[in-house]
Amino acid sequence: MAGDETLFRIFLFKKSGRNTLVLWAKANYFFYQKAWKLGIAKTLIIKSIVSLSFPLLLNFEGKNLSEIILTIEGIDPLELFGENNAKLNLLRKAYPDATITSRGNSLKITGEKKDAQAAKAKFEMMARYLREHHELSIQTVEDLLGGENPFEVRIPVMGDGSGSNVILYGREGRPIKAKTRNQKIMIEVCDTNDILFALGPAGTGKTYTAVALAVRALKNKVVKKIVLTRPAVEAGENLGFLPGDLKDKVDPYLRPLYDALDDMLPMDKLNFFMENRVIEIAPLAFMRGRTLDNAFIILDEAQNATPLQIKMFLTRLGPSAKCIITGDMTQIDLPHHQKSGLRQAVEILDGVDGIASVHLTIEDVVRHRLVKEIIKAYDKVDAEERAKRDRKKAEQESEREGDGAKPSEIRAANVAGN
Residue 306 contacts by C-beta under 8 Å, 6 or more apart in sequence? Predict the structure, then answer.
């Protein structure tokens, strides 16, 4: 070993009142230690790997090391660690200077005291979230590790796994429930108001929650029918001529509403309701001239309705009707020369008794974990473009004000000269 100029030193230092052995290794040797502490007769295996082309350095001299062992109780370790340790690996990635190992229902964290304590705190938050919500997604783990607090957004699951957040039970008895606090607020506000504006970015469950509330009202015989509508506006492309009858032409625009109904009603009952017009799905243009009473009405994608269309829709309500209007002001598909009527309606109807608004945020996104990141990226670009337009507008106004002052100054100078 001396011929290979291998250097290794053994340092003894105090940790929690016990002497611990630390190795410092260099050159073409790999050192593997099996739980060897000073005073305990266990083996230290040293293997030489001559083929290594780089030195391996393990140097912990002078560091304040800590070892933490946690025992998992009351929850499934597989749910906590994730399949193939996917969630645990996120924790390891967030704290690369700490060594995190799992065995059965225990977890050991070793490393500098600061890193070990930080990793411990995050792991305990993961366990608490799983215990309270009965689920722990990859997105939730990333939110926790990123410094966000999903406890403020997501709703804890009560004793039987459902709690008071269940809106109704869908196909095969699957509970359909509010997943975020803003969704729960949406449910509460809908119960106390006849018209509700639900606004928020894509993936926050606006349409799904609204359809669930409508189906619940129908099942409880609060209303006699459901009317679902949305503007037949193409999302930035021209589909051209569509074959088939009127239903075949408009169905592609209304597919999201069908998808929500499929989750909540058995197929035979849904077909029965559709055939007997208990549930009616139609484009917004067909609402003119109608009076909708004893009905739960949903206007989806309302950001693509013009001011006149919004006014026409809101004046269709009968004495015993309820209405939810959903929309995302960041996804307007109207031609540039047309204005969206949704923002105007929310502003001018603010404060009217019986009309309320709920604003969902990016934290309410319940789709794929990347949807939130996509929305953040686009929002950042939009904010930069708005700031750029505002600066340009301010510069133009400043130039106009400066140009406007020059003629008066010239006239004043001419008068003084005369």
Answer: 334, 338, 339, 340, 341
Residue 127 reports pLDDT greater than 60: yes
Do residues 156 and 105 lie in contact, with contact meaning Cβ atoms separated by under 8 Å?
no
Q: Is the separation of the CB atoms in 300 and 205 below 8 Å?
A: no
The DSSP code sequence of 293-333 is -SEEEEE-SGGGS-HHHHHHHHTTB-TT-EEEEEE-TT---
Pairing of strands 166-169, 106-112: unpaired
Q: Using N-to-C axis directions, what is the helix angle for 246-264 and 267-275, rounded to 10°?
A: 140
- Of residues 415 and 80, which shows the higher confidence score? 80
User: 88, 168, 165: which is closest to 99 by C-alpha?
Assistant: 88
What do you get for the CA distance between the two ends of the chain, in Å? 106
Does 180 score more than 70 pLDDT? yes
Q: Which residue has the tokens 């912990």?
A: 60
State both tokens at 15: 């940790």
CA atoms of 109 and 99, how far apart (whole Å): 6
Predicted TM-score of the model (pTM): 0.63
CA proximity to 322, closest of 226, 212, 195, 225: 195
What residue type is 249 in one-letter code?
A: K
Residue carrying the six token digits 């105007």 = 344
**Residue 201 corresponds to which amino acid?**
P
Mean pLDDT, rounded, of the chain: 76
Quote the DSSP letter at residue 156: P
Q: Give the pLDDT confidence of 348-357 residue by residue, as tens digits.
A: 999 899 999 9
CA gap 175, 406 in Å, rounded: 71
Q: How far apart are CA 300 and CA 231, in angstroms?
A: 8
Count of CB atoms situated within 10 Å of the CB of 368: 13
Residue 61 has pLDDT above 70, yes or no: no
CB 140 within 8 A of CB 179: no
The angle formed by the CA atoms of residues 142, 78 and 85, to the nearest 5 degrees, is 55
- Considering the chain, what percentage of its residues have pLDDT values greater than 90? 23
**Which single residue is written with the structure tokens 């975020």?**
180
* Three-class DSSP category at 71: strand
Q: How many CB atoms lie within 10 A of CB 113?
A: 14
